[in-house]
Amino acid sequence: MNQPITAADKTFIALRDDIVEGRIEAGSKLSETELSTKYAVSRAVIREAINRLESCHIVERKANVGARVVALSPQGLIELYQVRESLEGMAARLAATNMTDDEIADLSALLQSHFNEVKGGESYYQEAGDVDFHYRIILGSKNKHLISMLFDGIYHLVRMYRVQLGMAGPRVTTAYDEHKHIVQAILNRDAELAEMLMRRHILYSKNSIERKLS
Amino acid sequence: MNQPITAADKTFIALRDDIVEGRIEAGSKLSETELSTKYAVSRAVIREAINRLESCHIVERKANVGARVVALSPQGLIELYQVRESLEGMAARLAATNMTDDEIADLSALLQSHFNEVKGGESYYQEAGDVDFHYRIILGSKNKHLISMLFDGIYHLVRMYRVQLGMAGPRVTTAYDEHKHIVQAILNRDAELAEMLMRRHILYSKNSIERKLS
DNA sequence: TAACTACATTTTGTCGACAATATGTGGCAC
DNA sequence: GTGCCACATATTGTCGACAAAATGTAGTTA
């Protein structure tokens, strides 16, 4: 079922996770020889991994000089959320017309399970749940480019910021209601509203984060 | 001034252009050995070039099997324009607040030169002019991710479709007015309107293309 | 001391060869 | 003739070595 995974794939994922989770610090230099010993692979696969990370904007590279992990800045996070607002808004719009009834039903069920968690008391709205919710809508857009840009690129960067600026599960209480309204709009096949609500939802997230940073 | 360019860079660009301009046909297989003789470089640099093309979604790759140029489909073009509408809409919004007065003045001047061309008679609104207009607004957003996604990714794909489906300079007559209104909104620093107008502008383009395809 | 030059060192870029995997071909059983 | 298995072939994946470029260092001069 799973397509074969090469050493370059595994190294790419391992290196990416080490960076995103902060085990390799932001702004630090990535030495090819050093990494090749660390991950026990040849420089060729390290180079391929670094190239892919560059495509994700997780590392920056200068010819004949080398690669560095990107530096995190408040401005960078804001730019990231501007892109999210744009792309995920469109994703919600498309999801409202392209998701099947079954997929929408599943989404509603997911939302219900989140409601039970929130209602249940101390268990707050987990980040994983939030991510899962957004994933389904993005997938529901059925737009290959949208899906790839968000999953392969933006989301890892967003997580990198979250982890390294120490902000887990933001805005846990109000987000549920926003999710509910988005699902309702999709259920009504109201593309316009779904986009608007999703954009607001992400805008609020951005504002909340900006507040925490200042 | 210019950063050094490696053989991999040059090969990447050459290969990309050969694909985008249709000299390598859509859907065809890319043999590493074959290309390495054709471009007179080692397989390593070919592999790097192919990897980058994969990141641009210009080629698709299966592990242990190889890479193919993506196949063009009407659906694919529509998806591309959906992403463009989303991203360039946001770019216009951001440009309305982030462009300097000087940059806006330059944009107006560019528009004026287009007007002179259009007015001049037989010389229709060139594709290059259109692209230049959009470039400036995207750059004006000052958002690194937005700029990179559009310039490094989407635009080459759009051009690939245009070239290979044989549609140069679409909607040459009406596009000028739309551009004018967008610039006016940016001049007024009306972010909301700038986004809306840009989205409409791209939506019309999409509709026009869909009409030509059917 | 500051700045410039020449050299040594380190790091990245490129190459050819080998290993691992997938594809194509022929033969065999039924 | 059809389906399946084994083998030959071709292609991709990985590796270590060499070439080219940038950085760091020492020495010299003003």
Would you summarize the structure shown here?
Chains A, B: Pfam families: FCD, GntR. With 214 residues, chain A is mainly alpha-helical.
Summarize the topology.
2 copies of one chain form a homodimer.
Chain A lengths: L6 H14 L8 E2 L1 H7 L4 H13 L3 E4 L3 E4 L4 H25 L2 H20 L6 H14 L3 H21 L7 H16 L3 H23 L1
Antiparallel strand pairs in A: 1-3, 2-3
The first copy, chain A, binds a DNA duplex (30 and 30 nucleotides) through helix 3.
What descriptive keywords fit this protein?
homodimer; mainly alpha; DNA-binding; transcription regulation (chains A, B); WH_DNA-bd_sf (chains A, B); GntR_C (chains A, B); TF_FadR/GntR_C (chains A, B)
General description of the model:
Chains A, B: Pfam families: FCD (PF07729), GntR (PF00392). Chains A, B: Keywords: DNA-binding, Transcription, Transcription regulation. Two copies of one chain form a homodimer. Chain A is built from nine helices and three strands. With 214 residues, the first copy, chain A, is mainly alpha-helical. The first copy, chain A, has a three-stranded antiparallel sheet. In chain A, strand 2 and strand 3 form a beta hairpin. In chain A, helix 1 (7-20) packs across helix 3 (43-55) and helix 4 runs antiparallel to helix 7 (144-164). The longest helix of chain A is centred in the middle third of the chain and has 25 residues, at 74-98. The radius of gyration of chain A is 19 Å and the shape is elongated. Chain A binds chain B through residues 3-6, 9, 44, 47-48, 51-52, 55, 57, 62-64, 76, 79-80, 82-83, 85-87, 89-90, 94, 143-146, 148-149, 154, and chain B through 3-6, 9, 44, 47-48, 51-52, 55, 57, 62-64, 76, 79-80, 82-83, 85-87, 89-90, 94, 143-146, 148-149, 154. Chain A binds a DNA duplex (30 and 30 nucleotides) through helix 3.
